[in-house]
Amino acid sequence: MSKSKIWYFENFNIFEGFSQEQLLEIANQTAMKSVSKGEYIYFLNEMSDKIYLLKEGSIKIGTYTDDGREVVKAELRQGELFGEMALTDEGIRQDFAQALEKVKYCIFDLAMIDKMVETNPKLSLKITKIVGFRLRKVENKLADLVFKDARTRIVDFLKDQASQYGKPIGTETLIWNKLTHKDIASLTATSRQTVTTILNDLRTKNMIYFDRKRILIRDLENLV
Predict the structure, then answer these.
(1) Residue 1: per-residue pLDDT
(2) Which of 145, 161, 184 is the endpoint of a domain?
(3) How far apart are alpha carbons 44 and 32 in whole angstroms?
(4) Domain count of the fold of the chain
(5) Are 71 and 53 in contact (CB under 8 A)?
């Protein structure tokens, strides 16, 4: 088990600068768990006292409106930290984390994070950058609601997914997609019907191809 953890740690940038001995100590003091598609890693209103590293698979971070509607805030994939608001003395979770497929993840309590930062002060800066990046994405999403129409928001979502997770295949870009149209609608502040209509229009114009598991962008630069 420890060797498996160390392999993950060695291959994720956030652990750059830690020695083999330090990684072994971290591995021995952290738990690695797995959940199946649809299961929750943590819930809304749960105590916010741990952060997590996603080792395999993908998850969504979301919350609920007052009338019970689900709002997806982010999709995260292998190698990303989540639950990081625990470091800001959040107290109670303001969101949930749910598996989009079978996932493996590692759990760090706050005492372990403090110890890791003492060992490698650069880790604090990396975590701060992650928090800042996600806050900027929220701000950008709010700005998009004011200045961009639904089609532009959905196209920008596809471009963002391609930038983060896309794999070039000749002149095309392949994205392995775990999100439903409902999830994409939540992320782009549109409706599921609007997402379906716009994706179908893009497919009809041969700008993209998609099925339940993948999206293929024909020409990323000319996707509009």
Answers:
(1) 45
(2) 145
(3) 21
(4) 2
(5) no
